[in-house]
Amino acid sequence: MRTPEIRPGVRRQLRVPGKRDPQREADDEIRLHLELRTRQLIDEGMTPDEARAEAERRFGEVDDQRALLIESNARHARAARLREWLEGLRQDFRFAVRTLRRDIGFTAFAVPTIALGIAASVTVFSLVNGLLLRPLPFRDAKRLAWISNISDDGASEWTFQAFHYLDVQARNKSFDEIAAYYAYYSIGGSILSDGSDVQRFTTVGVTCNFLPFLGVRPMLGRSFTPEECRWGAPNTVLLTEDFWRRRFSANKAVVGRTITLNNAPATIIGVLPRTFDFPSIFAPGTPAEFFKPFPVGPETNKSGNTLAVIGRLKPGVSPEQANAELSSLGKQLTAEFPDRNTLRPKVVALEARINGPFRPALWTLAGAVVVVMLIVCANLSSLQYARSLSRQRELAVRLALGAARSRLVRQAFTESILIAGAGAAIGLAVALVATRVVSRLSAFKLPLLARVAVDGWALALAVGLCFVVGIAIGVLPALRAPSDATDTLKEGQRSLSGDRRQGRARASLVVAEMAAACMLLVGAGLLIRSFQNVVNQELGYRPAHLATVRVDPPTRLATITESRLYYDEVLRRTRAVPGVADAAIADLLPFGGDRSWSVHAEGQVYRRGEMPEAFMRVVSGGYFKTMGIPMVAGRDFNDGDANWTATAPPVAAVNETLARTLWPGRSPIGQLIFNGNVSWRVIAVVGDVRHGQLERPFTNEMYISIRQSGFSAANLVVRTTLPLGEISSAVRASLLPFAPNLPKNQWRSLQELVDAVASPRRFVMLLVGGFAAFALLLASLGIYALVSYSVSQRTREIGIRIALGASAGRVRSSVMSQTVRLAASGVALGIVAAFLLSRVLRGVLFGVEATDPASYAGALVVLALVALAAGYLPARRASRVDPNIALRDG
Amino acid sequence: MPDAPPIVKGTLDVLLLKALTWTPMHGFEITQWLEARSGGAVGVRDSALYQALHRMEERGLVSSDWGVTANSQRARYYKITKAGRKWLADETALWVRYAGAVTDILTSTPGKG
Questions:
Q1: Domain total in chain A
Q2: What's the pLDDT at A473?
Q3: What's the whole-number average pLDDT of chain A?
Q4: What is the dihedral of CA A181, A184, A187, A190, to 10 degrees?
Q5: Residues A764 and A699 occupy one common structural domain
Q6: A-to-B residue pairs, Cβ atoms closer than 8 angstroms
Q7: CA geometry: angle at A120 spanning A115 and A126, to 5°?
Q8: Which of A171, A238, A613, B111 could form a Cys-Cys staple with A291, CB 3.0–4.6 A?
Q9: What is the pLDDT of residues A441-490, one digit of tens each?
Q10: What is the pTM of this model?
Q11: Judgement on whether residues A738 and A872 belong to the same structural domain of the protein
Q12: Full domain range(s) for residue A423
């Protein structure tokens, strides 16, 4: 047996990886075999020719065998190449880890920077994806449309009257099907009593087809039957899954059980799955525990406009086409049925209706995040580049020792992708937390917010960004990898042309950073000014020291006299509590709901459909004083406002806007105001109050007395200097003897309610502001690093200048001039870019133009100051160069 | 030397691996080793040998490397891998059990037992 001199295991260590040639290997292997076999046969006594023939015979079809061996060699070679490549990658990786650990300062800066950038990107993407991009969680969601009914004055969107709903359903040609829910269901309007346990919940009335229409199937039990949807049918309810788990401990036996809801029996017929989150889409930030059938018929037609309507467009029909068809159908129905309310249907895609209002804000955030990522890349690219320059010699040595240039390039990318990967991992973790927090901000009242989460797409984005960032920051060092070892080594450290080139590359990166930071600063400035304008809007009342709680009667009160007694007593007891300065009751607080009535003055004739609209509130005496709403003329509601007669109608107050609308130039006091055939005598004119959104102008408002109406929702408002916790227990203690079943409701300050309205705007402002601050920090670090570097490169030159008599001031200003040049170009570029892009922001601005000079000037000043500060440190260092040391060492 | 009787189906791989447990060898060395060990009782078609070696290399049971023979000829040396040793041990156990059973049956005489 022959043994090779060098064992293959050893040989492998010495092997220089060469190209494997499958064909040559097969030939060599076969040739050797035939040769050895032939020799063996000759040794055994054959002639050379015989031996050769016999060897080939034994080997079989040499050509076929050769082909097979070539094929398997080729497969083998491919696998080997892959292994080698992976092995190289492993080496690169280990080398990169070593380098980064050695340069811990750079790593400690780069990784968190990328992490922040990626966390912001992934979080904002998850928001955009959850709120704007993903389809609504309904069957055929893309074809769903919202059908509203435009108000007489065209300003607001109303609901449908029952008969109109039925006729549109029967006559329209654009929709496969329409469905509706009762739009005025009362939040907390359902009292569930179980012995002494009395609690308020919310029930949503829906048309019989509403749930199947949306593709919602009960997880337990069944949906409503047509019989159950008739007027006067025994009460049936469906529960939401969360409520079922919370209240009934997920007990499956509740289906079929009868409960007491608003003092009447109701049968639970099923449980709706959590995937159907009605409030998150139609009434964000509010609860919904029960669903019940809403009968559409003559009885509900009497209540006027009540139905919020959704339709599923026939395939191929656009919302615009449906809108045109329904407009003419509306005119037709209005003309045909003079006894009904007017109908002016308006069709928009359901998605647009739901996310339309906050689209501009989200796209603003998305844009801001893109700019942040650009800055992150520019900043790290410039730093990485500087590092690579200081490593040129090391690279040249590796090149001289036989490393391929492609390996050096790959090494550069491995290192930058490794940094980016570490940053992405941390960023992703931060984004997971951030999206969780954001999705639970119930104060936002944003539809679909609850479904915001880091999903597969967000994950893909993080991975994608990791590579984009890795490549972006690795590309300059990779390009700088020396191609010729001897040159680099010979040249030493200094290459004038190289210096100039690299100086230019880094300078343009820093200018880009400044420009991007400038854009973000301008954007943040505009948002901050808008926010100030919004929160400084005149509210019409003073929210400070006001606290509120629901005090609806625990059981339904039979007569107005009974309810009057109840409210009088609640107020009497509350006002007696020490620390309570004022107390009053209102059925709806500002920002609490947008119920409005068509009203007209006595003798005024409006054409049908042109009647003014007024927000309507039912309040107790003392409400205006408690809230701090100025009494302009007349008197407050008082205990004398009780029973009324045909000649002495109930009383009402109007705000200044409504007074101007109905009685221009005249005093409204003593006049009659009508809603349909019902009239009130105006006894007061009060100040305007912002009842809807903060951004909307004042509108018509009217108030009627709670002592003269049957409305039963009641918010107790208390002016007090006591903290919420104290006032809560004090008032409760005083009310309990009189109303032992009063549910324990949450006290809130009125300021909280105002803040909640402004909170989405504050959120966007804070995020963009945060991005801008981050950008500013990175840009100033960029300037600082660049100027410091150039000072260190010029130490010798500066030393000579000082030796020749240049003053410290001269040196400082010469260095500062570099900073000023960089900052000025960056700011100039940024301001132009911001100006061009500011149109995007228009949708989120309030009371400020997208070209607001103050915001631009502010950004300019902030940026200039920060840049000068960043440049000052290296300038001061330069002016303190000791010429002796500089010239000796330089 | 006349052709040896054909090898029992399915045993080629184990025999080759067994050969390689001694030392890494090139193809021809393996045929020599097998002939020497079996006293000519086991014959391997030369082409089948190479196919088997390549197949096992793809399965990771053997690895190969180019080396030089004592006569300075370029030769491909095959070496058994860790996975190959494991597979060989398993197959050997199986083969011994199987062969024992077959032998028992074939050597039993009718009428007894």
A1: 4
A2: 86
A3: 85
A4: -80
A5: no
A6: 90
A7: 120
A8: A238
A9: 766 667 777 788 888 898 999 999 999 989 888 888 777 777 666 666 66
A10: 0.71
A11: no
A12: 360-536+757-889
